[in-house]
Amino acid sequence: MRLGDMSGAAAILNQARQRYAKHASVWLTSAEWARLMHDRDQEQEYLAQGLANCPGHWEILFRSADLQIRLGNLIQAQIFNEGARAADEQRIEPQIQHAELAEKCEDWPEAEARWQQLLQKKPDYRQAYTRLSTVFTRQSRHQEARRYRLAGQYGAELLEPVPQTGAQNRSRGAAGKLHFAQLILTKALLGLKSETSRTHLNYAWVVIEPLLHLIIYYVLFSQLLNAGIQNYGLFLLCGLVPWMWFAKAISTSATSILGGQSLMLTTNIAPMFFPLVSVAQATLKQLPALLCLLALGLATDIKTLSWSLLWLPLVLLVQLLLTVALALLIAAIVPFLRDLANLVGTGLMLLMFLSGVIYDYRSMPGRIAQWLEYNPMAVVISTYRQIILEGNPPDFAGLGFVLMVAMVLLLSGAALYRSLRHKFVRQGLR
């Protein structure tokens, strides 16, 4: 049959039916042969003979129901499907067919009940969420349709019963925020998996990429240009790792809302979802690089092993807030000012040299060092070096300044998203 020799297949199947009439696979294959030959009468005859020789076989009943659906005999299909479900309750195929039959009859409440029943038995069957979304759309229940469509794309953990009254209404906001955060994390993990699966080394690039940057900058500034800084490799890595996290998050989030226009057209998802996914993905990607930084510090400098390392999570949190705030702000402006997307790369390069990634900005002459202290990323990178290189507590005044800048940017971004939310999709279509 796969070679296209249908007459040869017919001869073999004829012998098989004579010798192995009690084997269900003989009748199923014979019915498949008839289906490929577009002979529905013969297909129906083979399935009937299969049921006569193998009564109660779930797959023959299932295939008989499928044939009746194609013939338009929905009542007869229901009878065969009921027999298939009764013959083997663990099989998912008859359950799916059962729900599809309700859709064929345009009995949308019954279709909803059957798909929900299927999900109770197999909650990881994502197609059921998509089909339920269609059923809800047919019933003009568009909010539920959007929720199930997203669950089909990103996972069932996004679904919880929608609060309606009493104490449930008071917890609705918190539950919605939790679901939104889960959706961001799920999408970031899927994006990271997709990105790494396209290369032979997969997740190894998470470590190789910062290592290659380290080697290039180390050779250029320490060996060729004589940076004159003790333990320059660790010094450089303390600047590169947080900077690469920041730069990747900003560069990928800049056009994220434009890239998410198709999803915004079909769902009611908030526009800030897209830059937040970019930041989350960049954060997940840089966590192994941070571990490598700590391992290198512990291996090369005894000062790294100090109680000051306990302050590192605080520095990471402050940098995350700054990154999120700036990413949201730039992503919100780009749809309305497309030229800004072309300037992000150049701006990041300039900011890199103003942030002391490859040198200590405090060693700059005159008032330059004082001006650079107003650069939040320069303060963050300097704080990493204080903790890892020098074994000292962070500069809390500097971190407070960075946190204040991040909060101002966050509040500005939140106001921007509230006022422009319904304009993002229209701008994306231009």
From TrEMBL:
Pfam families xref list: ABC2_membrane
Transmembrane segments: 201-220, 232-250, 262-280, 309-334, 340-359, 371-389, 401-420
Gene Ontology molecular-function annotations: ABC-type transporter activity
GO cellular component, one term: ATP-binding cassette (ABC) transporter complex
Gene Ontology terms describing biological process: lipopolysaccharide transport
PANTHER family from the UniProt entry: INNER MEMBRANE TRANSPORT PERMEASE, TRANSPORT PERMEASE PROTEIN
Entry's family note: Belongs to the ABC-2 integral membrane protein family.
Organism for this UniProt entry: Ectopseudomonas guguanensis
Key words of the record: Cell inner membrane, Cell membrane, Membrane, Transmembrane, Transmembrane helix, Transport
InterPro entries in the record: ABC2_TM, ABC2_TM_bact-type, ABC_2_transport, TPR-like_helical_dom_sf
Membrane topology of this protein: Multi-pass membrane protein
Keyword Transport on entry: yes
Keyword flag Transport: yes
Annotated localization: Cell inner membrane
The ABC transmembrane type-2 domain, residue ranges: 201-420
Name of this protein: Transport permease protein
Chief site of localization: membrane
